[in-house]
Amino acid sequence: MPIFRQLFDTTSSTYTYLLGDAAAGEAVLIDPVFEHVQRDTALLRELGLRLVATLDTHVHADHVTAAWLLQQRTGSRILLAGAATAVNVDRPLQHGDRIAFGSRHLEVRATPGHTSGCLTYVLDDHSRAFTGDALLIRGCGRTDFQQGSPQRLFRSVRTQILSLPDDCLLYPGHDYRGVTVTSVREEKRFNPRLGGDVDEADFCGYMDHLGLPHPKLMDIAVPANMRCGQPDGHGAPAPEPGWAPLVYTFGGIWEIQPQTLLERARELQLVDVREPSEFTGVLGHIAGARLAPMAQLADHLSALDPQRPVVAVCRSGARSAQATVLLRKAGFTQVANLAGGMLRWNAEALPVVGAAAD
Ligand code: FE
Hints:
By secondary structure, this protein is an alpha/beta fold. The protein has two domains: 3-225, Metallo-beta-lactamase, Chain A, CATH 3.60.15.10; 247-357, Rhodanese-like domain (Oxidized Rhodanese, domain 1). Helix content is 24%, strand content 22%. The chain has helices at residues 37-46, 67-74, 150-161, 184-190, 200-207, 218-225, 258-264, 276-279, 297-300, 318-329, 341-347, and strands spanning 3-9, 14-21, 26-30, 50-55, 77-81, 91-93, 98-101, 104-110, 119-123, 128-132, 169-172, 182-183, 247-248, 254-256, 269-272, 290-291, 310-313, 335-338. α3 (150-161) crosses α5. The protein binds fe (iii) ion. Fe (iii) ion is lined by residues 58, 60-61, 114, 133, 141. The site of fe (iii) ion has 6 residues, from loops.
């Protein structure tokens, strides 16, 4: 099995999928979301994978793709259906194309109907397929805009998706109830719109009377996605912190490495959130650090300058990670956690003060 991760955007209920070949160190992301670039690049780094391509299943109307931003940050190529006629695409995809990552590949199937450029990506061994909005769990994408067509969607799903092996797992582009996966067998039997004995006329009658409001973000998302997520000046990404080279972890914490902290200690405010006995214990503390045990952290905030960066320190980096969350909630914007805490600081033989003899 390739490396596989299912990621979620709570705002639009969008699933992003990571597929990777561990031996080759290569990965692709299907339907990455603009706001989650930091999360997704952190996960790739932690899994030791290089992003070779982003694949959107279609031009989305409810969120902005991260394809362009990931291309800028990682050098990944932007893949999207040629039929979508978007700009900034590195490789316009056609039915029957193959997308390689390491020794594995995805097969491209045209599944128009929700939009005219919808694609389904099928894993080489037909064990999994990523259906975008063509087929959702017990549902399907709407067909009332972006050149949608219920006739085309019905034929796409029946001939390209439900024709896969019964055991093939199907991963949708969204789920609004938090359900994560289905199978061809299940959807053939239980999909109320497209399964069982439903025929094309039944399906069109159903789809033509959905009466859904347009997605809230449509007027922003569709033009942005026609540029593969390149901002037009209005929606620039959140900048990387400029005050020090930091690493963003998949746990959502900005970390500073011990050596970087040593070099920049003078410019920073250091908050050590351990107990007093630890502060003067065997690990010692960093010169200039303010002792502010976790339980009393709130009492120390008024003594900190919100205009200057704050680095939180503890024994292992766990308590101080939570301290960075509390500091951000308190309004501090330039906050980082010392990676590995005083354990790593000592392991790297960096200078400490106040260390008790063992
Ligand atoms: Fe969609």
